[in-house]
């Protein structure tokens, strides 16, 4: 019989350490991560094993990867994740993720993975040449979450499909091993929870500053398309002022933004950074030209993002301290993960001697 406690509310989320984190990562995910610390037990992961699913040219190489892991850790902390309340660690330090991912590789179906739009986007035209790791990426993501039997996952819009897959995997595991799960003492047969995506706020999908039809992303070649958390005040201000817009004045209500993706994006960013809504922003700026709105947005972005970059730089000045924080987080994560992966092995019949 398993000694695991019943499922209780727990938050898990992660980001890949490839390149600098940007405003989309901040507004789509980090802001929510910080908020949830006050109401939930939270575990935040730097998913380094996911980072190596793409070509080496994308993540750079070992030295770049180590630096990027430390940079992501610093970004989580500078944005407000508090290691006294929450766990921060890097994925590869807790072997249970890889172990559970293997079991899930045997649960998930080819057909399910074939439908994943992110694989199609990242693999591009040359699918034969994509790594097998990129194809089973969503299984590892499901393992990240379910290693802790987490119930809530704060992410941006683009991760919705992956989280649906995580629920399908949890459900199929619970079904396939129903009798064994009950025999382990989980009377209702629910070993893994069906995790809920937490996709909220006015900026769950921040768009490129150069093209309102594309997501802000680290892979976009133009630096002007995104605000990095490490940008200084001049860079932030310059990028906002040069953001693409249309020639019209701002409308006084959100429905006036329909068909104006660039305007909609900038209003959404303003609302998210100031903690209000697009309605409230347009109450203040309805009728104004971008010549007036952009400087106000630039000032707000400098005020909110500037200090995060400064704090990241301070933290990165002491890499040994960052490594110590990750080591401590990994030890805490391992403690939660150990009884879960042991019970999975017992349920499946992978003999523990
Ligand atoms: P990634 O950089 O792909 O590892 O994403 C890390 C987190 O940031 C995930 O929760 C994503 O959904 C979120 N995210 C990435 N880009 C954006 C964006 N442009 N808008 C909103 N959220 C985003
Ligand atoms: N796939 C996510 C992204 O690219 C990162 C990720 C990996 C993640 N494992 C996760 C997010 C677990 C939430 C929960 O953004």
Structure report:
- The structure is a single chain.
- The protein starts with 10 loop residues before the first strand and ends in a 5-residue tail after the last helix.
- The chain has 2 domains: 226 residues, HUPs (Rossmann fold), CATH 3.40.50; 91 residues, Tyrosyl-Transfer RNA Synthetase (Orthogonal Bundle).
- The chain is globular and about 70 Å long.
- It has 16 helices and 5 strands.
- Helices cover 53% and strands 6% of the residues.
- Bound molecules: adenosine monophosphate and tryptophan (TRP).
- Adenosine monophosphate (AMP) binds next to helix 1.
List the helices and strands and how they pair.
Blueprint: E1 11-15, H1 23-36, E2 42-46, H2 48-51, H3 56-59, H4 62-79, E3 87-90, H5 96-105, H6 110-114, H7 117-123, H8 132-135, H9 137-146, E4 152-154, H10 160-176, H11 178-183, E5 196-198, H12 233-241, H13 261-274, H14 278-285, H15 290-316, H16 319-348
Parallel strand pairs: 1-2, 2-3, 4-5
Helix pairs in contact: 4-15, 5-9, 5-16, 9-10, 12-15, 13-14, 13-15
Bound molecules: adenosine monophosphate (AMP) and tryptophan.
Please give the alpha-carbon distance between the first and last residues: 16 Å
Q: How would you name the oligomeric state of the polypeptide chains in this document?
A: single chain
- CATH homology superfamily of the largest domain: HUPs
Could you spell the SSE succession in H and E letters? EHEHHHEHHHHHEHHEHHHHH
Query: Helix count?
Result: 16
Structural class: mainly alpha
